[in-house]
């Protein structure tokens, strides 16, 4: 997921440009970044809405939550929005596949949700995740760069005065 979320803004911006046109012409904006993933699943056994996915194969389904930060320009002013995404992913023999996606929008930095969640599998994020998963299954995704940590042997010496 960390690799997907690293790449998601560039995938989503390409999807938006191909389907909507340049951000300057459509008002969509630019996705700047995606937050780290949260994996705590919501219990779907008490589904409040028939729009939520079935729990028949819940053991095979992974829920992932993250936010994206988007910037739009209106004239000379910029507007930042957060979108809150709830993905359902399932693992098949060939790799991971995207199920339903639910998205809502909120203000930034206050995070006030301004709209109810909508199914968005066919939206920009859903399409971007689908393309990324396809590329991942094809082996075309660069791995995350390893994080370098300093060992006591290589850490710089501190001098006190």
Give the key terms.
single chain, 161 residues, alpha+beta, five-stranded antiparallel beta sheet, 3 helices, 5 strands, globular, disordered C terminus
How are the strands of the biggest sheet laid out side by side? Answer: 1-2-3-4-5
Distance between the termini: 45 Å
Helical residues, percent: 10-25%
What average pLDDT do the residues reach?
A: 80
**Stretches where pLDDT falls below 50 for ≥5 residues?**
154-161
Largest sheet: 5 strands, antiparallel
Outline, from the CA principal axes?
globular
- Look at the helices and sheets and give the structural class: alpha+beta
Number of domains: 1
Question: What is the strand content?
Answer: 25-35%
Q: How many β-strand runs? A: 5
DSSP summary: helix tally: 3
Radius of gyration computed on alpha carbons:
19 Å
- Topology pattern, helix = H, strand = E: HHEEEEEH
Compose a concise summary of this entry.
The protein has 161 residues and is α+β, with helices and mostly antiparallel strands.
Descriptive notes:
The chain is an alpha+beta fold. It has one domain (2-45, 54-137). 23% of the residues lie in helices and 31% in strands. The protein has helices spanning 2-20, 23-26, 124-137, and strands at residues 30-34, 61-74, 77-92, 95-107, 118-119. The protein has a 5-stranded antiparallel sheet. A hairpin with a 2-residue loop joins strand 3 and strand 4. Helix 1 (2-20) packs across helix 3 (124-137). The longest helix is centred in the first third of the chain and has 19 residues, at 2-20. It is globular. Mean pLDDT is 80; it is low at 154-161.
